[in-house]
Amino acid sequence: MVFQLLYSSTATQDFWPNDLLELVEKSRRKNAEHALTGMLLFHEGQFLQLLEGPEPAVRDCFAMVERDPRHHLVKVLLTGECQQRDFPEWTMGFERPGDAWNLPPAWSTILENGLNSGAASEHPSAAKNLLLSFHCGLCQ
Q: pLDDT tens digits for 79-115?
């Protein structure tokens, strides 16, 4: 069994492309050390991330996110065990969609209203499917 945790948060600072790439590269190294995989989406100052792996490692990683001063309004959307990883080869997949209007309607609504809005928390499975769509290439 694999433990998954899906959360959203709002950035407390501007993230320029180089800042995001540095964050992703550091996360990939740390995640590889702790057998974590997942996907991070950043859109208009908001994060949506799914972490998966051994439950203690996932919870430790998430605790670091909660303490990170670059995040606030951190909200757990979904937790649970599953049979297999959704992102087995990605220590940290990353996407920064430029235009929410190019996404399927249900998903563009989540982005349009903000990842940390009621849309994401009221429909956590849609938020998870949004992340999975990048992995599966459905948004290309």
A: 999 999 999 988 887 766 655 445 554 555 555 555 5
Closest by CA position to 8, among listed 58, 77, 65 = 77
- What is the maximum span of the chain, computed from C-alpha positions, in angstroms? 37
What are the Cα distances from residue 35, in Å, to 40, 96, 110? 16, 24, 29
Dihedral angle computed from the Cα positions of residues 9, 138, 80 and 55, in that order, rounded to the nearest 10 degrees: -70
DSSP letter for 100, please. G
- Model confidence, pTM: 0.79
- Alpha-helical regions (H) of the chain: 17-33, 55-67, 105-113, 118-122, 124-136
Alpha-carbon span 138 to 109, nearest angstrom: 16
What is the set of domains in the chain, with CATH numbers?
2-136 (3.30.70.100)
Instruction: Report how far residue 93's alpha carbon sits from residue 24's, in angstroms, rounded to the nearest whole number.
Output: 8
